Amino acid sequence: MSLAIIGGTGLSKLDGFVPAGEEAVSTRWGAPSAPLRRGRYHGREVIFLPRHGDAHQLPPHRINYRANLQALYDAGVQEIIAVAAVGNITDAFRPGTLAVPDQIIDYTWGREHTFAGPDAVMHVDFTRPYSETLRQRLLAAARRVGAEVLDGGTYGCTQGPRLETAAEVDRLERDGCAMIGMTGMPEAALARELDMACACLAVSVNQAAGRGAQDGDIHAEIEASLARGMA
Ligand code: HPA
């Protein structure tokens, strides 16, 4: 199985990645966020792609998700670990720790969200948006290294690039979201359209807006938790 890791905010590079070549590819949807980097990570062959670009220059709503997923597909990738910084709503995990969500609610708009053309009718089954096999492998791996990890939870994907209002977070919580990020969609749905297994490794980098004792300084909390969580 060919495996890819898509890195999110705070993970533009994989520490310990042994590069074996990179390829600047293009697809019918345009170029992916960065060249595809092949190499070995802890003995395992992977392709690494930083979602926001090498210089973290692409905000969530400007990422060419179709090009990213198509490029990985064309490279023979069958499994994707999508690493994503999130804000936690639930107290069941906290900044600096991990979650492997099992559901998604999509609040984004205006993004190119399907490979289907205007005349194509395509009803892809997305009841379970993530690969359960890959989810279980991520959970087992996290536990093996003693990382604190929450099994499951709904990932609410907001449009960004701004963070949410406190009232929006209340609404997301009423909807059943455990965490909020800005990049999980359409990424996961596009992976499904291409029949690639995808699971999200969510790293909480802050408590969602209006939660906890952050006193309005959400950025300080993100800075403090990002490196720790990604490591
Ligand atoms: N909201 C949305 N996306 C995020 C957050 C957040 O609080 N933290 C990291 N990505």
Topology as a string of helices (H) and strands (E): EEEEHEEEHEEHEHEH
Distance between the termini: 25 Å
How would a textbook summarize the main sheet? 11 strands, mixed
Mean pLDDT: 94
Find the structural class using helix and strand composition: alpha/beta
Give the number of DSSP strands: 11
Tally of alpha and pi helices: 5
Global Rg: 17 Å
Report on this model:
The radius of gyration is 17 Å and the shape is globular. It is of the alpha/beta class and 231 residues long. It starts with a strand and ends with a helix. A hairpin with a 2-residue loop joins strand 3 and strand 4. Strands 1, 2, 3, 4, 5, 6, 7, 8, 9, 10 and 11 form an 11-stranded mixed sheet that branches. Helices cover 24% and strands 28% of the residues. Bound molecules: hypoxanthine. The site of hypoxanthine has 12 residues, from strand 5, strand 10 and strand 11.
Short description:
The protein has 231 residues and is of the alpha/beta class.
Structural key phrases:
11 strands, binds hypoxanthine, 231 residues
Lay out the secondary structure:
Elements: E1 3-7, E2 17-23, E3 36-41, E4 44-50, H1 65-74, E5 79-88, E6 98-100, E7 103-106, H2 132-144, E8 149-151, E9 154-157, H3 166-175, E10 177-181, H4 184-193, E11 197-207, H5 218-230
Parallel strand pairs: 1-4, 1-5, 5-11, 6-8, 7-9, 9-10
Antiparallel strand pairs: 2-3, 3-4, 5-10, 6-11
Bound molecules: hypoxanthine.
